[in-house]
Write a sequence for this structure.
């Protein structure tokens, strides 16, 4: 386990009966060496007194967004930047719902929105509230954006019910937090991910594009952030929210994507090219809308776009390069050939069709590297991304170990 010593922990407390356990959690964190700042919602004060928490942590408890005294010392945005990690325990159904829709109507929800720090949530509520589809949808949305769920546990509840919804015990939550620190396989490392389609303009209103939704690339960005990476997500036009803690650069065309990737390259140790980049673009972009009057057909001349991934991989100083291969036939052979010709460290191949790979929530991947391969079964892209990031981390670490011993 990695002690939380030296880490700056915002301990968020919301209004549930389990709030009384937050005092013990704060004590364990302080004993482990963490610098703890408690932030309570106003109603949490009904369940536990701020003075108790101040005495344990040595810091005045914060509970107000508009507090001239505290804002003068450390404003809420500074506090959002100060945090290495935000742990909300207990997290009530109401609080989870508010942050799931991006509310920022008190200090704690504002911090969750403004901070790029990992967000750990320890839910505590009645079992029926936990099982309600609304709560489950809110939790799923937060996890998809990169939040980590700690619990809840199953058992007797304060209301007399039995079932899932108990907050995990403070010692278990400390262990979870320590594990989340040790599990950060890309801690502090800069990673570039491309995602989504590119759109190649034909005239001011038309473009050539493809069916990529960005779901796979965005899921990878969230999974990498959960592993401590500083992720730059360079995305073509998609309708997806930016995962928590991710820096996003929006582009439209392949040429813009190439410029953005090359500009970010110097700091990056890992490049994952998940975008479906158009191989061709119209030679000429019409200045005015192309008219159909008086024509029965239209001929377009297309020119090749630069291959961003091949260009990055060919550099002398280059990050670990992971490509994707979208294939309709001969998946394995085509992916191996792409890996060789583009000089990649790893390739993730997917069989694609109108209803498979592009735009779907689920996918399957065949992941290939120089001396191994693994088939990842069909599953939600969010889970697939977690597994792929694990495989990449294994190969990345192995390559670093070889370089160091050589
Ligand atoms: O976005 P989703 O709807 O979730 O769908 C995910 C996906 C199907 C788009 C994704 O899983 C995927 O397969 N992405 C790569 C799609 C693709 O363009 O594959 P390709 O075989 O044409 O390209 C091979 C590799 O070279 C890719 O890593 C691609 O990003 C890269 N490339 C291709 C052309 C180019 N000009 N520059 C590149 O960098």
């Amino acid at each position: 386990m990695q002690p939380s010593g030296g880490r700056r922990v915002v301990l968020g407390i919301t209004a549930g009966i389990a709030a009384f356990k937050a005092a013990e959690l704060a004590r364990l964190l302080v004993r482990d060496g963490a610098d703890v700042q408690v932030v309570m919602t106003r109603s949490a004060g009904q369940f536990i007194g701020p003075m108790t928490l101040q005495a344990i942590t040595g810091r005045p408890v914060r509970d107000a967004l508009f507090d001239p005294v505290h804002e003068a010392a450390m404003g809420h945005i500074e506090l959002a930047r100060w945090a290495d990690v935000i742990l909300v325990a207990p997290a009530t159904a109401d609080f989870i719902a508010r942050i799931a829709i991006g509310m920022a109507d008190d200090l704690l929800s504002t911090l969750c929105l403004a901070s790029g720090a990992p967000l750990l949530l320890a839910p505590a509520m009645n079992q029926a509230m936990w099982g309600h589809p609304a709560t489950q949808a809110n939790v799923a949305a937060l996890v998809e954006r990169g939040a980590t769920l700690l619990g809840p546990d199953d058992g007797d509840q304060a209301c007399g019910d039995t079932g899932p919804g108990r907050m995990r015990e403070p010692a278990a939550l400390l262990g979870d937090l320590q594990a989340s620190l040790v599990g950060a396989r890309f801690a502090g490392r800069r990673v570039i991910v491309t995602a989504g389609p590119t759109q190649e303009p034909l005239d001011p209103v038309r473009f050539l594009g493809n069916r990529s939704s960005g779901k796979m690339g965005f899921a990878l960005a969230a999974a990498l952030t959960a592993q401590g990476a500083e992720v730059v997500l360079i995305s073509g036009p998609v309708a997806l929210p930016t995962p928590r803690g991710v820096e996003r650069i929006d582009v439209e065309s392949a040429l813009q994507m190439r410029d953005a990737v090359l500009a970010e390259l110097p700091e990056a140790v890992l490049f994952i090219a998940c975008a479906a980049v158009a191989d061709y673009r119209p030679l000429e972009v019409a200045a005015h809308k192309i008219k159909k009057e008086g024509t029965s057909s239209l001929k377009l001349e297309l020119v090749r776009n630069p291959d961003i991934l091949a260009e990055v991989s060919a550099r002398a100083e280059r990050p670990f390069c992971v490509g994707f291969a979208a294939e309709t036939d001969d998946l394995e052979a085509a992916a191996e050939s792409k890996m060789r010709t583009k000089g990649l460290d790893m390739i993730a191949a997917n069989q694609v069709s109108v209803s498979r790979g592009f735009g779907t929530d689920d996918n399957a991947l065949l992941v290939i590297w120089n001396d191994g391969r693994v088939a990842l079964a069909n599953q939600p892209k969010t889970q697939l991304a977690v597994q792929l990031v694990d495989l990449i981390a294994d190969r990345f670490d192995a390559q670093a170990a070889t370089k160091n011993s050589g």
Q: What stands out?
A: The chain has a mean pLDDT of 92.
